[in-house]
Amino acid sequence: MSANLKPTLARLAIGETLTDDQAEAAFDIIMSGEATPAQIGALLMAMRLRGETVAEITGAVRAMRSRMTAIDAPEGAIDVCGTGGDGAGTLNVSSAVAFVVAGCSVPVAKHGNRALSSRTGGADVLTALGVNVDAPMASLPAILAEAGLVFLFAPRHHPSMRHAAGPRVELGTRTIFNLLGPLANPARVRRQLTGVYHPDWTRPMAETLAALGHDSAWIVHGLGLDELTVAGQNQVTALSGSTIRSFVVEPEDAGLPRAPIEAIRGGDAAINAAALQALLQGADGAYRDTVLLNAAAALIVAGRAGDLREGVSLAAAAIASGAALAALETLRRVSAVTES
To answer: What GO cellular-component annotations does this UniProt entry give (predicted)?
Structure first.
């Protein structure tokens, strides 16, 4: 039992907030395994009920990053991922976006996990596509260099998170940990397209990335989804250097037609993998348009596109040329490496 966490719990019990340094110290205690399940649950629920602050999220991310197993990535690498938790059961959007963006010659360090709140997570669909998500750690930078993207399987890079796993399951509700994963990319990327499960989190997440020194990001939410949607209006908060601004994006801004969310409902890993493969082979429809919209946003974040229409054009060209499909095929091949 950690006596060091008791003063923090006392402050939270009377409604006080933590500074980033205090939050970092508290989460380091949790991730070191020194806190009891009761202490972890009390801290998480006190923050959830009062509302987590940017300083608290920033400190928690710093603690998480300090204990992660990191890899090297080239300058300009980007992550495309979401918090999960939207419960929509859609086809895998960010995984498909990763291949399209890599097909545009932008290095992608894709952080992800197996299904937690959805039917099919990034690791599940990639495994179904023949990608080895457990490739040796030492080979990951080389995989990124050759394929243009790499999958960073969260449990392997954040082993200290296991200490909070039990209390999180027992609480059975969203906590600050749902926000931390997308903010702790093991490749230390400084550019991100990140989806959040509720629009209220777009600005705090952008402010957190600013506090952490990131260069560019779009934090997005689309009609209940932790990604941009072609179904209607999307909420976006963008970080560019030291500037943060919030705005609305609609599919027409990117020259794309509207389609209902039901048009991209997914299924199990095999169903979602087949849809993703077909998309990269040129299949049309709402799934393709959703991926193009998100890829366009990622290309803006990467500094490759000036606006959404240009980004859609570049993304569509990566599919039409076969470059996006080639990224999948190369990742499948080079990730098959095993320990020597």
So the answer is: cytosol
- Asked if residue 124 has pLDDT above 80, the reply is yes
Q: Is 105 marked as binding a ligand? A: no
Query: Cα separations (Å) of 46 from 9, 177, 251?
Result: 8, 13, 38
Question: Is 168 marked within a binding site?
Answer: yes
Confidence at 30, pLDDT banded by 50, 70, 90:
very high
The residue range of the domain holding 248 is 78-334
Say which DSSP state 223 is in.
Answer: T
How is residue 41 written in tokens? 């649950």
Last residue of a domain, one of 44, 67, 90: 67
311 in a known ligand binding site: no
Q: What are the Cα distances from residue 285, in Å, to 4, 64, 137, 279, 327?
A: 55, 39, 37, 9, 21
Quick one: 18 exposed, middle or buried, by C-beta within 10 A (0-12, 13-18, 19+)? buried
Residue 32 marked as a ligand binder: no
115 is an annotated ligand-binding site residue: yes
Q: What pLDDT band is residue 340 in, cutting at 50, 70 and 90? A: very low
Question: What's 27-72 look like in SS3?
Answer: HHHHHCCCCCHHHHHHHHHHHHHHCCCHHHHHHHHHHHHHHCCCCC
- 128 with 180, same domain: the answer is yes
Give dist(CA 193, CA 105) in Å, integer: 16
Q: Tokens in use for 135?
A: 């490739």
Q: List % helix, strand, coil for the chain (3-state, nearest 5).
A: 50, 15, 35
**8 A C-beta contact, residue 315 and residue 105:** no
pLDDT of residue 254: 98
pLDDT one-digit tens code per residue, 213-248: 999 999 999 999 999 999 999 999 999 999 999 999
The annotation status of 250 as a binding-site residue, yes or no, is: no
CA–CA distance, 123 with 135 (Å, rounded to integer): 12
Q: Look at residue 174 in the predicted model and tell me its pLDDT.
A: 85
85 known member of a binding site: yes
Together in a domain, 179 and 302: yes
